[in-house]
Automatic annotation (TrEMBL):
<feature type="region of interest" description="Disordered">
    <location>
        <begin position="790"/>
        <end position="858"/>
    </location>
</feature>
<feature type="region of interest" description="Disordered">
    <location>
        <begin position="1065"/>
        <end position="1086"/>
    </location>
</feature>
<feature type="region of interest" description="Disordered">
    <location>
        <begin position="1"/>
        <end position="29"/>
    </location>
</feature>
<dbReference type="InterPro" id="IPR011989">
    <property type="entry name" value="ARM-like"/>
</dbReference>
<feature type="compositionally biased region" description="Basic and acidic residues">
    <location>
        <begin position="893"/>
        <end position="915"/>
    </location>
</feature>
<protein>
    <submittedName>
        <fullName>Regulatory-associated protein of mTOR isoform X2</fullName>
    </submittedName>
</protein>
<dbReference type="Pfam" id="PF14538">
    <property type="entry name" value="Raptor_N"/>
</dbReference>
<keyword id="KW-0853">WD repeat</keyword>
<comment type="similarity">
    <text>Belongs to the WD repeat RAPTOR family.</text>
</comment>
<keyword id="KW-0677">Repeat</keyword>
<feature type="compositionally biased region" description="Acidic residues">
    <location>
        <begin position="11"/>
        <end position="29"/>
    </location>
</feature>
<dbReference type="InterPro" id="IPR029347">
    <property type="entry name" value="Raptor_N"/>
</dbReference>
<dbReference type="InterPro" id="IPR015943">
    <property type="entry name" value="WD40/YVTN_repeat-like_dom_sf"/>
</dbReference>
<feature type="compositionally biased region" description="Basic and acidic residues">
    <location>
        <begin position="841"/>
        <end position="850"/>
    </location>
</feature>
<dbReference type="InterPro" id="IPR004083">
    <property type="entry name" value="Raptor"/>
</dbReference>
<feature type="region of interest" description="Disordered">
    <location>
        <begin position="888"/>
        <end position="915"/>
    </location>
</feature>
<dbReference type="InterPro" id="IPR016024">
    <property type="entry name" value="ARM-type_fold"/>
</dbReference>
Length: 1226
């Protein structure tokens, strides 16, 4: 660092005359510009992921086979039962009934227990069956089930254990023998998919052999297929078969008399009752009553009624087991077992309880696919706590049911509180696992008691980003949310639209489910309800835009539901409000309403004509003036879809042509007044459809423009060029030279569309220039690839002009864009410009339908495309905890408002640094200027710097030469960044720092009127382009010719001349002065840029008939102030608090304007040379002006009368006045 104090220049924002206080600290509170997401990242959508939350192979359990081999009264020979031992089967004691009655009762009880979980399935009982009975049963159920799942429940407590080959036992017809049933045969009869439940000892051996027999089936099928050829049927895959076995291989079922004999079946079919019984047997309870076990059968309520004790316990049990499985199993396995089918999911959840209970009796249940043991999961403690609280109330409820009300469990309320604490205190990230309460929140949605709170918490979780939406979808929220669309409660609307917006944004395929469930009506009602808040209607518009996105059924349903009129109503309300978005979020509502309209029209001409009847295109055109670039881009997208729908229509009419031309012209008129790349890209995408529809007309325009350019380059008049072209073709062609190409009318809409396209191809924004160049190149390729027929002798002598513009609006300002872009475009194959004869045009017109202006473009590919809508959807998916509309309250503060974040501390440090530098600057106002004896910075540049701009607060200096620009740290002499500048954009003439109080941006302007905004980078990296556009329409200047015969001095010559004797130095100077002068033109005047941070606008002046003011926040042309002067602007100044604008010109005049008015408030004509400076000092009531001849004039601003005239020692090249100190530099 040097001893020299920092650069203390003060921006024009700080008006002179302020007191010495921190009142100028307002600058640190100014909003930043060009720092929105659209400026910080590429405009492209998020990558589409393959969604795994949907079950790929979802089967319903259609049929259930209940096979009971009990042989009541006869024990199997290989089992020695204890005395006493377990007797209950399906909670029925077989010894209390006759054998036949007991078997029937047990079968009916088992069917009843299964029907609690799936009442719609078809149940068939097979009591003590034979092999033929089972074969008939299984084959019959498979025929009825077709491709659905069949459940096979086997109770083998009255037969021997399965054999080592996995055979189960049945009876012969006389019940005198046990007959083995091969698993291979059972697989053949059952087919797939199937679910097997084995409640018998040594059941694990069946599971072990099942895979071997399945593989054997596949081998047998391959052999049959090879022998029979293609006649064989489709193979049966057993990979989707599920097996649940009571114990492992070699184990015997428990025989404790306190337990039922079918303990495994009891856990699977009556889990709550079995869980309570086991809990009572092994736990010290709050209520120590000997008959509590007998009271278990008297628990009040129904399993299906969540308001009762039994129903609530079953509800909590389902939530806990579902959460245990979700938090412990791989996602694919969880989806396969717990989300594929209602009955399968229930059995798998209950299997977790069976694993926990039976392990305590030295039995290990087995499953396929294999499930890990979850008997020690921490959530089982919450289940036991819930049982303890419930059983404490049971005696009182049963003794005096009318005097004691059941107190509901606080389980779900506590789980919601835990989820809320996770959101409040957790460190959210994609790498962190979601909270284990997430499945429980979904269970809460089934009840109206905590539904509103659960939805609000769910909204807060979804606001964390796309990863949270994936987690919620994976846990199974989708069917719950579909059912809630039928709810009419108004307090759910806010949360519902937010959750559905997140779901549709993550997985657009949900549009099919929404349309099938008629869910679009829900969001249409929200959008049309004026009592709903704007944020919620915006979310409804977002969902509707997703429903109609490339889905014909969704488009038709939305159109029948009056979506078009609902969206247009929002546009009408905005127009009636004077174009102001009064309500918070109104701009976002307009944006998504426009996107919804565009997606509704895309590819559907019928919907487009419905919009025409409502004058939708006129209402949308008004939104092209909106201050939000996203709204204007969405409007342009909708109008592009409007034109595209007409382009893809099978029939074209004159009315359709006029509509499309009118819309296209309105869009093209916005290209030179809109600075947002988003908007201009959408406009270019819309104009391509005009090129594709009216391809022949644009080819004619291209031909004519190519001829004009060729004539200019050859220096011949147009008629002479045509003469030469006709002569080259032969003597007979000369007479037809005048009709060799069709005359394009001056007011033709195609010419007015072609000129902006050519101008956009020379834009400084690379992506936009490439898009326009691709469209122009498409027309050029079509011309080059077509062999035009020669004109015949009998051709008529009149010209074929193209249809004029359909309206009477003035022509678009095309400035100097009526020529083709020079870079990257094609010439004719033979080196001569192509021509079109009238005969070729007439022949072409006869080939087309009389009602159509273009051929069908269905087979053509689009030329350019944009991803604005996809990017806007990705923006919605970002973490926006503070924007969770359905959360009821602020779900968290934005990251940039976090007072503990690094960004906040950096801002506070920078704010204090700026305040300190301003105080130091005020202290130096009256200081005497020091002698310039110390060099603070020195660096060599490959080219002479043309512009230098110092940063107001940092030790940064921006330098620009002809072909590049860069930023240096003048304190350390380090090169921070260097950016390339294309010569086609013109030479750099001005630099300006934007957002200097925070992260500064660098504005670079060229003499051709191009303006680019860069974000400087460190470490020598190339600065990032933020935005660029043609900000000033400069007048064409005469070609610059430097004076000839002027000696060019090298640095070595200058140094040698410095140390030469006086007489030699004088002789060399006399020789230089005696060199003959040649006429030359002055170099073209540069573009001047002035930035106003307070008004967030840029002012540009130069070789143009007006001064342009650009609103940097809205990225729109704010005003055009006519200069009233033919000379170019050479000096520009803007006021801080006052809207004052001063401009000096090349003819020596100085003009002052109020930016809010077009007429100048003052004009001075005192200088005879170009003005270099016109700067007022309001604290001294002084205006300082100076010109290149060295004349400086001081005026009293109160009277605009000259006070003093000062002459510099010689001509001046630059002049500036310090805005604070009494300093003047040249």
């Amino acid at each position: 660092m040097t001893d020299m104090p920092p650069y203390l220049a003060v921006n024009d924002e700080e008006e002179s005359g302020e007191p010495d206080s921190d009142s100028s600290d307002f600058e640190d509170d100014l909003p930043l510009i060009f720092n929105k997401p659209r400026h910080l990242e590429p405009i492209k959508g998020a990558e589409r992921e393959e969604h795994s939350w949907r079950v790929k192979e979802k089967y319903k359990t259609h049929c259930v086979a209940l096979v009971l081999c009990l042989n009541v009264g006869v024990d199997p020979p290989d089992v020695i039962k204890t005395q006493p031992c377990a007797r209950l089967q399906c909670w029925i004691d077989p010894s209390s009934l006759s054998p036949t009655k007991a078997l029937e009762s047990i079968g009916n009880a088992l069917q009843t227990q299964y029907e609690r979980w799936q009442p719609r399935a078809r149940y068939k009982q097979s009591l003590d069956p034979t092999m033929d009975d089972i074969k008939k049963l299984c084959c019959s159920l498979r025929r009825n089930a077709k491709e659905e799942r069949v459940l096979f429940h086997y109770n083998g407590h009255g037969v021997p254990k399965p054999t080592s080959q996995g055979e189960i036992w049945v009876f012969n017809k006389s019940y005198t023998q046990y007959i083995p049933l091969s698993m291979y045969d059972l697989q053949t009869w059952m087919g797939a998919p199937s679910l097997y439940v084995y409640d018998c000892s040594n059941a694990g051996v069946i599971v072990d052999n099942f895979k071997q027999f399945a593989a054997q089936h596949e081998r047998d099928y391959e052999m049959q297929a090879s022998s029979k050829g293609a006649e064989g049927g489709a193979p049966v895959s057993y990979k989707n078969c599920i097996q649940l076995a009571a114990c492992a291989s070699g184990q015997t079922l428990p025989m404790s008399p306190e337990l039922p004999a079918d303990l495994f079946t009891a856990c699977l079919t009556t889990p709550v009752k079995m869980a309570i019984k086991w809990f009572v047997l092994r736990t010290r309870l709050r209520v120590a009553r000997a008959d509590l076990v007998d009271l278990i059968d008297k628990i009040p309520g129904q399993v299906t009624d969540r308001r009762t004790m039994l129903g609530e316990l079953n509800w909590i049990f389902t939530a806990i087991t579902d959460t245990i499985a979700w938090s412990s199993l791989p996602p694919e396995l969880f989806q396969q077992l717990f989300r594929a089918d209602l009955l399968t999911a229930s059995l798998c959840r209950n299997f977790l309880l069976a694993d926990r209970i039976m392990r305590s009796y030295n039995c290990t249940p087995v499953s396929s696919p294999a499930l890990p043991s979850l008997a020690r999961h921490p959530l089982w403690a919450a289940w036991e706590h819930t049982l303890d609280l419930a059983l404490a109330q049971l005696p009182a409820l049963l003794d005096k049911p009318h005097h004691h009300n059941y107190h509901h469990s606080p389980f779900f309320r506590d789980q919601l509180t835990a989820f809320q604490l996770w959101l409040d205190l957790g460190n959210w990230s994609e790498s962190r696992a979601p909270p284990e309460q997430l499945p429980m929140v979904l269970q809460v949605l089934l009840s109206t008691l905590h539904r509103v709170r659960a939805l609000q918490i769910l909204c807060r979780f979804l606001s964390l980003g796309a990863w949270a939406v994936h987690a919620v979808l994976a846990v199974g929220i989708f069917p719950y949310m579909l059912k809630l669309l039928q709810a009419s409660a108004h307090d759910l609307r806010a949360s519902m639209v937010y959750i559905w917006a997140k779901i549709v944004a993550v997985d657009p395929s949900c549009q099919v489910d929404l349309v099938n469930a008629k869910g679009h009506k829900y969001f249409l009602s929200v959008l049309q309800d004026p009592s709903v808040e704007t944020e919620h209607r915006t979310l409804a518009a977002f969902v509707l835009a997703g429903i109609v996105d490339r889905y014909p059924a969704g488009q038709e349903a939305a159109l029948q539901g009056s979506m078009l009129s609902a969206c247009l109503e929002k546009l009408r309300e905005w127009a009636e409000a004077g174009g102001a978005c009064a309500a918070r979020g109104e701009a976002a509502l307009l944006q998504w309403a426009c996107i919804a309209l565009g997606r509704l029209w895309r590819g559907w001409d019928a919907a487009r004509w419905v919009g025409v009847r409502d004058r939708a295109h006129d209402k949308l055109a008004a939104l092209l003036l909106h201050r939000r670039p996203e709204v204007r881009a969405a409007c342009a997208f909708a109008l592009a879809a409007f034109v595209e729908a007409g382009a893809r229509a099978p029939q074209r009419t004159d009315h359709a042509n006029a509509l499309d031309q009118l819309v296209a012209k309105r869009l093209a008129e916005r290209l030179h007044v809109d600075a947002s790349p988003l908007v201009r890209a959408e406009i270019l995408a819309a104009l391509q459809w005009m090129v594709l529809m009216f391809e022949q007309h644009f080819k004619a325009v291209y031909q004519q423009e190519r001829v004009k350019r060729s004539d200019r380059e050859s220096g011949q008049p147009i008629d002479a060029a045509l003469d030469a072209l006709a002569g080259a073709r032969g003597p007979h062609a000369r007479a037809n030279a005048a009709i060799a190409r069709p005359a394009i009318g001056f007011g033709s809409v195609f010419l007015e569309l072609w000129n902006p396209l050519c101008a956009m191809a020379r834009e400084p924004h690379p992506q936009l220039a490439q898009m326009a160049a691709d469209i122009v190149a498409y027309v050029a390729d079509q011309v080059d690839n077509v062999q035009w027929p020669e004109p015949e002798r009998g051709a008529h002598a009149h010209s074929n002009s193209l249809p004029p513009s359909p309206n009477s609006r003035p022509a678009l300002h095309a400035h100097d864009s009526r020529t083709l872009p020079h870079a990257g475009h094609r010439r004719g194959k033979a080196g001569l410009p192509h021509t079109i004869s009238e005969d070729s045009v007439a022949l072409r017109d006869r080939d087309r339908d009389s009602t159509s202006s273009t051929s069908s473009i269905s087979s053509k590919k689009i030329i350019v495309s944009t991803q604005f809508v996809e990017w806007a959807t990705a923006q919605f998916l970002r973490g926006d905890a503070g924007a969770a509309a359905g959360a009821g309250a602020a779900a968290g503060e934005r990251a940039d408002a976090d007072r503990e974040s690094r960004a906040h501390h950096e801002r506070e440090w920078r704010r204090e640094r700026n305040r300190s530098m301003r105080r130091e600057a005020r202290a130096l106002r009256q200081a005497r200027p020091a002698r310039l004896e110390t060099v603070a910075f020195h660096s060599r540049c490959p080219l002479p710097p043309a512009v230098v701009q110092f940063h107001p607060y940092e030790q940064h200096a921006a330098l620009a030469s002809r072909d590049n620009f860069g930023v240096w740290d003048w304190g350390t002499a380090a090169k921070l960044c260097v950016g390339a500048w294309r010569r086609a954009w013109g030479r750099i003439t001005a630099l300006a720092y934007l957002n200097a109080h925070q992260h500064a941006l660098l504005a670079v302007a060229s003499h051709q009127g191009h303006l680019a905004i860069y974000r400087p980078a460190g470490g020598g990296a190339e600065p990032a382009l933020v935005t660029a556009w043609r900000a000033l329409d400069v007048r064409p200047a005469p070609d610059y010719r430097p004076p000839s015969a002027q000696p060019i001095y090298s640095l070595a010559q200058l140094v040698s001349e410095q140390f030469a004797p006086p007489e030699e130095r004088g002789a060399a100077r006399a020789l230089h002065d005696a060199a003959p002068a040649s006429p030359s033109n002055p170099p073209p005047t540069g573009t001047l840029v002035r930035w106003s941070a307070r008004r967030r606008s840029l002012a540009l002046a130069g070789q143009a008939p007006c001064v342009r003011l650009w609103d940097a926040h809205a990225e729109l042309l704010q005003a055009e102030i006519p200069t009233g002067c033919e000379a170019a602007a050479t000096a520009l100044w803007r006021g801080g608090r006052s809207a004052q604008l001063l401009c000096g010109f090349g003819d020596g005049s100085v003009r002052a304007w109020d930016e809010r008015a077009a007429r100048p408030v003052a004009t001075l004509h005192q200088h005879a040379a170009p003005v270099l400076c016109a700067t007022p000092r309001h604290d001294l009531y002084t205006l300082v002006t100076g010109c290149t001849e060295g004349e400086l004039r001081l005026y009293d601003t109160r009277k605009l009368s000259p006070v003093e005239v000062v002459r510099a020692p010689g001509p001046l090249a630059a002049l500036d006045v310090h805005p604070r100190a009494a300093l003047l530099a040249w």
